[in-house]
Amino acid sequence: MTVKGSSRQITSNQTGNHPDLMEKLQRHLQSPFIRPFQDFNRHAFVAAEKAWQQHSGKLILDTGCGTGVSTINLAKQNPEHFVMGVDQSADRLEREKEQLPENMLLVRADLIDFWRLAVQANWDVEQHYLLYPNPWPKKKHLPRRWHGHAVLPYIISLGSTIECRSNWPVYIEEFAQSVQSLTTGQVSIETFQPEIFLTPFEKKYQQSGHDLWRCRIENNQASQNLINYFNL
Question: How far is residue 135's CA from residue 54's CA, in Å, rounded to a whole number?
């Protein structure tokens, strides 16, 4: 796949972390997220769980995987693991024509349901990736960013290591600020130079002169805030 470095820098009417970010998180933590599950997502989850059970490896979850290029790369880098890429777009998932490694699976599902079903099923995820999610850079769109959404407690409940990458530093800084109160693990932010590009976007952004940012949560364990949320 040929990728040209022609991506524009993200522009926003928001220059720093959103002033309502923590207030929104506190509101989410005060009431459970009870949106009904869609049958399609339930069926997709059951099939995905069965596929994982047939493999002996620990799970790496690649959420919002797009065409699945990142899932393929993670599977090649981690041959002893089972790598699962999840995206809601059938069109994106069908674009990648490369033969898939045997230790991976691409799943079409709505992440909001999939994450919650995985927590409900007590999935043991070793590594959880959120690679270049839609930044929704307009200030009014905070609730559409994953750290501004009611599903965030479920996201942070999946993975002993969680990594979110973006070319917009505000997204990463907000993500880190939000998860600080949900984990007792080590939360870090850094710019980085990837040795191997996991996604076409990652390559395009770097070739366009963008800084690449990531937030990592290591030794992730639920904080009291997260424990209280799930005991509501």
Answer: 35
d(CA 68, CA 49): 18
How far apart CA 25 and CA 78 sit, in angstroms, is: 34
Buried b (16+ CB within 10 A) or exposed e, 188-212: eeeeeeeeebbbbbbbbbbeeebeb
Burial-class residue 121 by CB neighbours within 10 Å (0-12, 13-18, 19+). Answer: exposed
Given this model, what pLDDT does residue 128 score?
A: 98
Q: What is the mean pLDDT of the segment spanning 198-216?
A: 96
Flag whether pLDDT at 1 surpasses 70.
no
Measured CA to CA in angstroms, residue 150 lies from 127, 147, 179 at distances of 22, 8, 13
Segment (H or E) for 93: helix 90-93
Q: Is 178 left (phi over 0), alpha (psi -120 to 50) or beta?
A: alpha
Question: Which stretches of 94-232 are DSSP H helices?
Answer: 111-120, 152-156, 169-179, 200-207, 224-230
CA–CA separation, 136 vs 12, rounded Å?
9
Place of tokens 């230790």: 103
Closest CA to 64 of 40, 88, 91: 88
Q: Strand ranges (DSSP E) for the chain? A: 59-63, 82-87, 104-108, 125-131, 161-166, 186-191, 213-218
Q: Do 114 and 44 contact (CB within 8 A), yes or no?
A: yes
Q: pTM for this structure?
A: 0.94
C-alpha to C-alpha distance for 28 and 119, rounded to whole angstroms: 17
